[in-house]
Write a structure and sequence with these properties.
Order of helices and strands: EEEEHEHEEEEEEHEEHHHHHHHHHHH
Strand content: 15-25%
Helix content: 40-55%
Structural class: alpha+beta
Oligomer: single chain
Length: about 450
């Protein structure tokens, strides 16, 4: 007698293994699964569909309702390379409606399945596959931690089968870098449920990057794995449930923590906290605006330290919208323009600072630097244009000599009627053929000599 495993509890989904799979792992919810199937009607064995006939594996995301219930249940129980027969009662297939014209109403179906492989659930914000999750144990509730809330986790990190760290750690989500938690684990934890255990496969950019970690023995550009258990977490009060005084207090707290990281030159962490602080300052008030302006000014410092000068410039713009005479924002925007090579705008910002604070030594120094750089640039341009004229003249003289050498004697004689002085000032071929270019070059030449 054929032995079937009861997967649904009510015998609505039954599985008979044809070929055992390898390993102990099975795909979990969210995994992208690849398999072959052949579907037949239980009543008469008539085939109604087959991926093998198309010679094209079927792919779907497990546990998202994109396939019939029996498929989700059956595939979740299969090991790599396993082949099986899946017997599906109507309520776990197409029900009383069927799927015309091939599947009649209330039909029991049989599927022969072969699982070819699967990829973990992609948890990256950009869907680039850099963080893959394989759920080992599902969580016990439907709540997830929020950025900024305290999490308590157990970590086991490994590379090529070697465990390089195992520990329990507590930290505020979003500040894991402070306690050596890699970004891939932090991003993944935002999708964890309480008491969930999952295996994470992290590409280098979400782990230790191009530098690796010599203390842990992780080489550069290494793909690593972490088995992570979210033991507990503290839920934050939703911003929409907080009073204006409470949101302001939270913004101040985050700003203070960010400033602590700024002083410690942990600029990425500081930026993270400043960004979060700004989300609490949506209600306008005099005190709130003062806090927001202070955050913008500190954001600018962090961005400039990280050489993100275009982002720093935009933050300066936001600060100046709030206070158009703020000398710190003007000066720091000037520094970003200077780093970006926009000398004229940099000079304008430093000069604007001096209009408000004539004795500002830092701005005076930067004005001197800008003027020196602008002069050096202009001197360089003069040389470029001078070289252009010389090259044009040399080229035309050479062409004229070549043309004259090819002229018949009678033409040479006629050309020779020019006197030496006249030949020197006679128009060249280039000048005759390009009068507009010559006029433009002459104008530019005069402008640079008059500077």
């Amino acid at each position: 007698m054929e032995e079937y495993l009861n997967l649904s509890g009510d015998a609505g989904v039954q599985k008979r293994i044809l070929q055992e799979g390898t390993g102990d792992e099975t795909p979990s919810k969210g995994c992208s699964v690849s398999l072959h199937y052949t579907g037949t009607l239980d009543e008469d064995g008539k085939k109604f569909d087959s991926s093998r006939d198309r010679n094209e594996p079927f792919q779907f995301t497990l546990g998202t309702g994109s396939v019939i219930k029996a498929f989700d249940m059956g595939v979740a129980s299969m090991k790599l390379g396993e082949k099986c027969i899946l017997k599906c009662a109507p309520q776990y297939a197409y029900g009383s409606s069927g799927s015309p014209p091939n599947i009649p109403p209330n039909a029991t179906l049989n599927f022969e399945l072969e699982i070819l492989g699967w990829k973990g659930e992609d948890l990256t914000p950009k869907s680039d596959g850099g963080i893959q999750r394989f759920i080992v144990k599902s969580g016990s509730c439907k709540k997830r931690p929020s950025v900024g809330g305290l999490v308590k986790v157990h970590l086991v990190g490994s590379h090529e089968g070697r465990v390089f760290e195992e520990r329990d750690v507590e930290f505020c989500l979003g500040e894991g870098k402070e306690v050596g938690v890699v970004s891939g684990v932090e991003l993944a934890l935002e999708k964890f449920y309480k008491e969930e255990t999952s295996r994470l496969v992290l590409e280098p950019s979400y782990a230790f990057g191009g530098k690796g970690n010599s203390e842990l023995g992780v080489p550069p550009n290494a793909k690593v794995e972490y088995t992570v258990t979210l033991n507990d977490f503290e839920s934050l009060v939703e911003r929409s449930m907080m009073s204006p005084d409470e949101t302001l207090a939270q913004a101040k707290l985050l700003r203070e923590k960010g400033t602590k990281y700024l002083k410690e030159e942990k600029h990425d962490l500081a930026l993270n906290l400043y960004d979060r602080a700004l989300t609490y300052l949506y209600a306008q008030s005099k005190e709130g605006d003062a806090v927001k302006l202070a955050i913008y000014l500190n954001q600018i410092l962090c961005l400039q330290k990280l050489n993100k000068h275009d982002e720093a410039r935009l933050a300066c713009v936001e600060a100046l919208k709030m206070d158009s005479k703020n000398v710190k924002a003007m000066y720091r925007r000037g520094m970003s323009y200077l780093a970006l090579g926009d000398l004229d705008r940099a000079l304008r910002d430093f000069s604007a600072v001096l209009e408000i604070e004539p004795d500002n030594k830092a701005a005076l120094n930067q004005v001197t630097i800008c003027k020196h750089k602008i002069k050096s640039y202009n001197d360089q341009q003069k040389k470029v244009f001078a070289n252009m004229f010389t090259k044009f003249a040399q080229s035309d003289s050479k062409k004229a000599q070549e043309e004259q050498s090819r002229l018949p004697d009678v033409m040479k004689q006629k050309f020779g009627e020019w006197g030496d002085d006249e030949r020197e000032h006679a128009p060249t071929r280039f000048e005759k053929e390009n009068p507009d270019v010559i006029m433009l070059l002459n104008d530019l030449h005069k402008q640079f000599h008059n500077m």
